[in-house]
Amino acid sequence: MLVLFETPAGFALFKVLDEGKLSKVEDLWKDFASSDKARKVVELKAFNKFENTSDALSAATLLIDSKPSKGLRKFLQKHCDGETLAVADSKLGNAIKEKLKIDCRHDSAVMELMRGLRSQLTELMSGLAEHDLGPMSLGLSHSLSRYKLKFSPEKVDTMIIQAIGLLDDLDKELNTYAMRVREWYGWHFPELTKIVADNIHYAKAVKMMGNRVNAVNLDFSEILPEEVEAELKEAAVISMGTEVNDLDLLNIRELCDQVLALSEYRAQLYDYLKSRMNTIAPNLTALVGELVGARLIAHGGSLMNLAKQPGSTIQILGAEKALFRALKTKHATPKYGLIYHASLIGQAAPKHKGKISRSLAAKTALAIRYDALADGDDNSMGLESRIKLETRLRVLEGKELGRSAGSAKGKPKIEAYEKDRKGAGALITPAKTYNPASDLVLGKSTEETPKKSEVASKKRKHEEAEPTKEATEADGEQEKEKSKKKKKKSKDSEESPAADADGGEKKKKKKNKESEEAPLADADGEKKKKKKKSDAQDVPMETDESSKKEKKKKKKHADE
């Protein structure tokens, strides 16, 4: 049996001297504990060396896909006639068996044998030293990794980082130069600053005009609209600016040339940046635009570094200072960084910017990974993600989307609310019914009034009986003593809580009224007759002055 072993230098075929040891897989490692023991198990039969690095790379890439290279097929056909071949990859063994008709073996014993060969490789192969094998392995691994990532000079994102940095610098310099032109020429023609707002148009007008006196005879139609041109010519005639000499105007015109040259170079650089972004990160460009995408790549360091970042990091990339300040002061963290300048976030309302920025950051993270690691160069994924985000934005703003938002089949059915039902439906509590016994009936309330009137009449009869006893007494001295006692009692009653007395009197009055208003029985009529008789007897008997005074006091007390 032969063993196929791959090395960075080439393919090696080892002859198994004692196949019986392969049956004892657990003890096979002991036979490779030293080089002498290993030579007793296997020996090198043939070696196929790679001619160069590209040959090694092509053979290695084919082996990854479980395909034998052309050189390997020739090598096996030459040395494997009628032999069983042990391989480390079962798929590779199947491919060799189909194409070369060579029996292949792959099991745990073969893997243990491969492990032993790897440990004693330099001892079993005389022409391969250990210090040579290390650099060869490193070079081949680098080449293989570069091939896996589809490395191409067209995908170098360093150019984007430099271009966006230069574009930002040009914007600053261009703004500084333009403001200097306005300030310098403003001494000669100050009205022109308000008439022409654009910096480039201002520089072109100054370069063409020179002295403001020449403005009347010049044609500014290629630079300015007709209304602005007419206003400029009128202002040039009545301008309050100072006079300048030709040397000053020459320097101002040279500065205008610098402004125009910088603006032209900036437009050229922007076109270059746009083309590079569409080549290197087409999906990222479709989502957030060229400038925002380039700034994200520059801030991340490279497209590959940016692909390693999660969506939450991409969302706040560029707002690190605000993030750490918020964490330190325990305030709300920022919702967006560089991604804020994307057109999708600009279209959203202020209350929806946070949600859209989070969704856009998640889609941007996917687009960056697709651009960095995928094989395709189209921007279909980015365009699809942008359409989804625009749809989500319209949903948040409450706009109608038609059928894309969902069909009528999925709409929930509206059912009547029943507070006594729950779930599928048994009643939790029995339904409440009408109870006629709880109604208030007027007849029952009137039946209680005669009882109250009887009690009130008894009390009144007892009170009216007292003055008759006093009238029967003949002696005036005894009447005076009783009157004094009654005065003391009245004083004591006045000193008691007024609330109790008033309450008692009110109750008595209510009882009297109820007795008068209620339909009384025959017994009530007899009581009224007795009351009248007692009143008639009291009038002739009260002859004394003391009895009159007491009666007046009682009436006053009752009125109170």
TrEMBL record:
<dbReference type="InterPro" id="IPR045056">
    <property type="entry name" value="Nop56/Nop58"/>
</dbReference>
<dbReference type="InterPro" id="IPR002687">
    <property type="entry name" value="Nop_dom"/>
</dbReference>
<protein>
    <recommendedName>
        <fullName>Nucleolar protein 58</fullName>
    </recommendedName>
</protein>
<comment type="function">
    <text>Required for pre-18S rRNA processing. May bind microtubules.</text>
</comment>
<dbReference type="InterPro" id="IPR036070">
    <property type="entry name" value="Nop_dom_sf"/>
</dbReference>
<feature type="domain" description="Nop">
    <location>
        <begin position="280"/>
        <end position="398"/>
    </location>
</feature>
<feature type="region of interest" description="Disordered">
    <location>
        <begin position="438"/>
        <end position="560"/>
    </location>
</feature>
<dbReference type="GO" id="GO:0042254">
    <property type="term" value="P:ribosome biogenesis"/>
</dbReference>
<dbReference type="InterPro" id="IPR042239">
    <property type="entry name" value="Nop_C"/>
</dbReference>
<dbReference type="Pfam" id="PF08156">
    <property type="entry name" value="NOP5NT"/>
</dbReference>
<keyword id="KW-0539">Nucleus</keyword>
<dbReference type="GO" id="GO:0031428">
    <property type="term" value="C:box C/D methylation guide snoRNP complex"/>
</dbReference>
<feature type="compositionally biased region" description="Basic and acidic residues">
    <location>
        <begin position="445"/>
        <end position="482"/>
    </location>
</feature>
<dbReference type="InterPro" id="IPR012976">
    <property type="entry name" value="NOSIC"/>
</dbReference>
<feature type="compositionally biased region" description="Basic residues">
    <location>
        <begin position="549"/>
        <end position="560"/>
    </location>
</feature>
<dbReference type="GO" id="GO:0032040">
    <property type="term" value="C:small-subunit processome"/>
</dbReference>
<dbReference type="Pfam" id="PF01798">
    <property type="entry name" value="Nop"/>
</dbReference>
<dbReference type="GO" id="GO:0030515">
    <property type="term" value="F:snoRNA binding"/>
</dbReference>
<keyword id="KW-0690">Ribosome biogenesis</keyword>
<dbReference type="InterPro" id="IPR012974">
    <property type="entry name" value="NOP58/56_N"/>
</dbReference>
<keyword id="KW-0687">Ribonucleoprotein</keyword>
<comment type="similarity">
    <text>Belongs to the NOP5/NOP56 family.</text>
</comment>
